[in-house]
Amino acid sequence: MNYKTFKNKLNISDNISDRYSSINEEINIDNYQYIIEHLLPTIIKKHSNSIITEQLIKEYSNKVFNKEFSGDRVLFEIRKLNKLDNILPNKLDYILEDNSRIVINYETQELINNILGNHKDIIDYMQKNSNNFSKTINQIKGYH
Hints:
single chain, mainly alpha, two-stranded antiparallel sheet, 2 strands, 67% helix, globular
């Protein structure tokens, strides 16, 4: 059942639905702000040898608000911490360059991070579309 059908069965008006969407977005932003202000430096230290600068914090701050696929362990951990960002248990959704959406579980994301984290060329290939993404995931799982 798609969202529109579900909404119609519940007789939810667009106004109420929009209001809830707006509230969820505000909560999501507040949650990310807390993570960025209080947890991000610790998460970066845990996964990287980078020197933590204001510029690095700003770069990650900008990245967490989009759902672009990444092999970055820092972004993965931030998204795991934000409960509204992963509505399906133990899964994350991403938007690829062709605007298709994909959903993967944490285990698959960790596999990607471990195997492809330093291979930006392959990550870029996966970001193009769902076909490239699926093909790469199948190859990784076949070799792992």
